[in-house]
Amino acid sequence: MMRKKRRSSVDKGEGATTTTKAKKSRTTGRKSKQPAPEETNESVFGVFLREAGVTLKQGGTSNEIAVDQVVFQKRIQKQLQKSPRYPGIVQEFTAGLESHIEDPERFRNCLLPCVPRLSDGDASNGSSFQESLLRMLLGIEMLQTFIIKSLLEKLPEFMFDGTGDGGLSIPHTIINQFKWLDRVVDSKELAAKLMELVSVAPVEVQRDIISSLPEILEDSQHNDIARELNSLLQENTQLTVPILDALSSLNLSSSLLTEVRGAVMVTLAAVQLEDLPVVVKFILHSVSASDAYEVVCSLRKKLELEQCVLPAVLQASQSRIKSKGSAASASTPSAGSSQDSVTLTLDGIKSAVRFQKMISEAWLKAIESVDEEEDHKVVDLLVLFILHSTNANQSRRGAERVLKGKVRTGLIQEALLQRTFRDYAQVMRGYFPSILALAQSLLRSPDPCVVPFGGHMYRHSFTAFDSYCQQEVVGSLVTHVCSGVGGEVDMALELLLCLVTEKPSEMALYAVFVKGILDYMDSLTPQQIRRLFHLLSSLAFGQQQQGSHIQDDMHIVIRKQLSSTVPKYKRIGIIGAIRIVGSMGAIRLKGKESQNGSLPQETLRQVTALLELVKSSSESSPEAAALYYDELANLVLSSSLDPQVQQTIGKSVIEDFQGDFVVDLRPEISGSFPFTPRVMYDLEVEGNIVIDLLPLLAKDLQTKGEQQSQTTKAHKRVSPLCLSPFFRLLRLCVHKLHQGNLEEIDGLLGCPLMLTDMDVIEKIESLSKADREFFCSLLFHAINWFREVINAFCEQKETEMKMRVMTRLQNITYLQSLLERALAETPGYVPPVANFDGESPDGVTLSSAAPVSKAKKDGTGKKRKAPGKNSSESSSQLEEMTEADKTQQVNFKPHVLISLLWSYAKKGILLVLKEQPEKEKEKEMRQGVSLVSYRQFFRELDMEVLDVLRCGLLTCSLLDSELNTKVREEVLLGPAELVFLLEDMHRKLEFSLTAAPAKRPFFFKGRTDKSVGFSHLQQRSSKDIASYCVQLLPALCSHLENCHNYFQTLLSENNGVVDGPATDVQEHHVMSSGYQLLLQVLNTTFSWSGFSQPGQRSLLKKALGVLAERLKEESADLTLGQLVKHGFEYLVNFRSTVPSLSTALCLSRLLSTVSEKGGNPAAYREQTASLAKRFLSQDWVTASGARERGIKSNEALHTLLRIYLEHVDDVLKAVEEITGVGIPELINASKDESSASWPTLNRHTFLVFYKVLMAELEKAIRKIPAGKVSDNTEAQSEKLLTWTLAVRNLHVLVDLVKVFDSRPVLNVCLKYGRLFLESFLKLGMPLLDNSFKRHMEDVQDLLKTFQLSTRQLHHMCGHSKIQQDTSLTSHVPALKKSLELLVYRVKAMLSLNNCQEAFQIGNLKNRNLKGEEILSQQSQESDEEEEEEEEQQRSPLPQDQSEDEAPGTDSEESKTVNREEDVDQDDITDDSD
């Protein structure tokens, strides 16, 4: 090697002849064995090449080169230049070249790389790679032009030849010769000739030429060639890819790039699918920061990925994805290629957003700007997944934020997600981690609107992706369940259950993962535990039994939990065992395990054994036994059990119930009891059975005491706790076995209870604590029995059965009134459990189980039960004379009395009516505690009980003394019972239809669970409940009209006075409660967020149609807007009879809710404001004649006043009306009187008015547009007038603290005064800056008025510090800072308008509210002036001089401002904060 290098260096110094001889000798020695033909061309071309070191070969042998190509080029150039025939020798040389390449074989050799000539030592004599001969000659500038011309002339000869032997394309090779030349002599000419060739060449050659242009041309030619390529692009879409590739590599000006991009964007819709990735990549990589958003918006609009995958090939594509390694179908290449093209397109977008922040921001902004659901495309979701998959945190958060916002507003819905997964599963598989992360985030969101969408993402991911993704989905859902967060757990369990139902075989593979949740059941609610065991038992014990490998584990867990002595774990065991029974004992499909579809005997034996195990495990604990009955009842109700299993359960239930709780009616009852037993509430004329309640309760308490004192083994206890749950199970079994016929047990509806004389309530104070608690427990058990009886028979159609159900409702309301009084005398009492799937109530704190005084609230709570059974003044006592001369007194409502009189008269039984003494009426009027806190101790009423609301309403005015047929045959509902049912309905709707964020638990869970008492309700969807409410709407409207008629009649009888002599105070109170509850129920129903979903539009129209039909008979053809209009008109009619301020508020809220459903709530603003003003201008008094007052009344007034000011057209004028008319009337009125114009405004409610007025005033000025320099005079005048009115209102409100100087008023004034100041500085001062010259007097008047307010605010700051009230002084530093900012801001305004000399600053003394100087600062400020922010006009403008021509001195304005200082240095420091 060293020798060769030296020889090469020597060659450079020697003559050409020596070098040639040396090369010849080596070549001759190397080729001695196999001589190759050499070209013996004696032309100048051949001689020069040979002398320069290149040997031309013939045939298929490549030309040989003996020297480095650079040396060769220098030798050729030197030979040509030193030739005596120069420059003619150049033409001879090129002529020889042309002659040589005439032969195609030799031309081919010249295009191919030369091979180095090898020496005798078989070593290379040059670099390992050498260029072709023509390429080397092109590097010689004097030959370049001629050779380029020759090559371009030769190229057409081979255009249509295609690929030759060895895969060599002559046109492609020719074009490659021009690439990366060190210098192009005539670049412009070369570009022109290449473009000429493009115009005539076939497509393949065109692509080669265009793709090579950036590597051939110099930068100076880039813009020109780009324009030609742009024109070509619009003519020929086949060349899209090479043209865009070329354009991407060219150095273009920004304007030309924009032009080219625009042309490309136009052709985007016509681009071939395989070209789409290149087009998108070019568009995104050619944008700048200024036009990124516009370009991305246009690209998003034109990018139609939905058309990229044809439905015909879609299924084959999906099957290929799911083949899991099987041979791919060869018949579907188009499906794979289309998916690949979409993948490449998205990869282009991904690279753009990853490396260019502006692109990612533009995509987010473009997707966010879409405001119609139908405008969203598949590409939106795909891009959001791409943005989330990038490593940039900002893109991740942005994608998550946009997706949540779109889902929350309903613009991106499940249909779009389903379409994306269906058509692009292969594409989306690459973004699975991002899809999973987004689904997790959505499922954890506290917003209930976005949680279901996260669930859909999980479900579609499981369905569309491979087994790895399915495992990740299940693992993530299990993690959600184990988090313990209520809403998250519910949705995750629902998804798992859905997957088990839809994909049992796939889910069976991951049953072990799901089984792991059993270790985290401590944090799950009973309803969640039910769902967990439901899905596990479906996997393990379902008909297919795909997850049979976890059966043993399930049995072990259940037996372990059932044998536990801890109540919590025993509850879990009972729930789980019953769910397993439901899966094992379900009805089987025919043909699998048995020929007739019946349950196999072995399975039946296992089911029976498991039921016996649960029963025996729960016998010793009444709570466990009751839970067993409840769970079994739920199973019977909700599942389709095999008839054999159903028969087994039903038979044992009927026998056990009769033996445990029902006894024969006998004259005497033996035994020692706290109270004398008495048969009560018997509706059966010839009945001979009774529910043995009081003896059972006494025996249970005795047994409980014995078990606590002794350590004997627990045996089965018949406890009254099991009475209601056992009866529920009994009636559901009978209902199931007899297809809804309850005739077998209908005697229990009228069956009496063994209670005691209810006169005990009159001497409750004198009883011992144990007796009082026994009496309370007796009442709780009796009420719960009646509630379950109503649940059972509420759907019966016979009139007599309906009458009895109504009677039981009456019994409940009466017993609850007694219970309220009994609980008031029994503080600290914990009632018996009624809902057994929750936590033990031992630690429950009952707020109402307190001294009587705490619960004595009159009219302040809407949910207080009716205090007595005699809601109607015609209440009577019923005395029945039997053969044994036995007298039994029972209380009844008038309508129940009528029905009973009729039925007894038909049987020949004499009934004697007694008037109830007035003394007893007064006793029943006594107040008791509210039962609101005791609701968890009452049995849950089923939704079907609300069907009773379809009955009419009976009031005193409707009673017929002659007992005519109409009254007898119609079942009517009493006011107290109406209130009872409406309260229950309202609680149910609040729980089910109200938005869920409020139900999301905090990290530290409270001791009480809001879901207690709603176990049955939780098993129904909110859609079902909303549909049921819509069906009840006609009945609710009828009751609403009855209440309206009642109060209208009452007002007419009393000549328009509420508290007239004809008013029954108690009935008035009950009817008022019913009126308010009806409005609340309607408002909760129409407020359901589900109505905004597209699928529920028909249900909303149906609901609004019910309201509209009350006015207009036919509403089927009305639009949604028309329905809203008629519904609004219907509800407005009730405004004249609302009996209380809280009811008026409910009506206003209902009207606002209904008006929002039509999409144009602004059309009803005026009516809503007018109605609110009417209510505010009404004097509200109770039936007893007292004016409404108290916390509840003030809260209602506060909200109603806000509704008025929010809906009124001009807030400032409305505030001025109240402050200018109403408040002066109040100040001039006597102590207990109110304003004449605004009767709701009195001294007790002044603070409510003051706070709302200040808050709404501050909110109104924030909506005033800021002043701009471009505003014309008219716009400035309008804004200035608005600010003047606002400042005047502030002055009046701030000045009121001199009259009403209580601490709450001062607090409100300081808070909102500061906020007003800040808004004025931000929005008002720019207006004054621009309008000072044109409206100098108006500005001066405004600031003078504002000065009065700021001075008073300053005095209030001093007063706050003197009083040392922290609630007031907390506002002082920020307020003083704003006051000082105002001073200097006014100075800046004057300086801007050349009036800075008119500004003076003085010091302001601190004063109290009365204007007296604070003495502690007198010594330090004795020489200071007492003025603040006064404005004086030194020399006004002459009348005949225009403001533009006025000199600065004439337009100056003096403003004496006083810096506010305090004595203490600490205070000064505070003020500057």
Task: Please outline the helices and strands.
Blueprint: H1 2-13, H2 16-30, H3 44-52, E1 54-55, E2 64-65, H4 69-82, H5 88-100, H6 104-111, E3 115-116, H7 133-138, H8 141-154, H9 170-177, H10 187-200, H11 203-216, H12 222-235, H13 240-249, H14 254-266, H15 276-285, H16 292-302, H17 311-321, H18 333-355, H19 357-368, H20 378-389, H21 393-408, H22 414-423, H23 425-428, H24 432-443, H25 451-464, H26 467-482, H27 486-502, H28 504-508, H29 511-515, H30 526-541, H31 551-562, H32 567-584, H33 601-618, H34 622-638, H35 643-661, E4 662-664, E5 677-680, E6 689-691, H36 693-709, H37 723-737, H38 747-750, E7 753-756, H39 769-793, H40 799-824, H41 852-855, E8 876-880, E9 889-892, H42 894-906, E10 911-915, H43 918-924, E11 952-953, H44 965-969, E12 972-973, H45 975-992, H46 1015-1018, H47 1022-1053, H48 1065-1086, H49 1097-1109, H50 1120-1132, H51 1141-1155, H52 1165-1176, H53 1191-1207, H54 1211-1228, H55 1246-1262, H56 1273-1295, H57 1303-1331, H58 1336-1363, H59 1366-1369, H60 1372-1392, E13 1399-1404, E14 1430-1432, E15 1454-1460, H61 1465-1472
Parallel strand pairs: 2-3, 11-12, 13-15
Antiparallel strand pairs: 1-2, 4-6, 5-7, 8-9, 8-10, 14-15
Globular, elongated, flat, extended or rod-shaped: what is the shape? flat
Computed CA radius of gyration, to the nearest angstrom = 47 Å
Helical content band: 55-70%
How many beta-strand runs?
15
End-to-end Cα distance: 84 Å
> Strand share of the residues?
under 5%
The largest pleated sheet is described as: 3 strands, mixed
Give the overall average pLDDT.
77
As residue ranges, the low-confidence spans are: 1-37, 121-126, 310-334, 591-595, 841-845, 847-926, 960-968, 996-1008, 1417-1473
Q: What is the number of helical segments per DSSP (H or I, 4+ residues)?
A: 61
Strand order of the largest sheet: 1-2-3
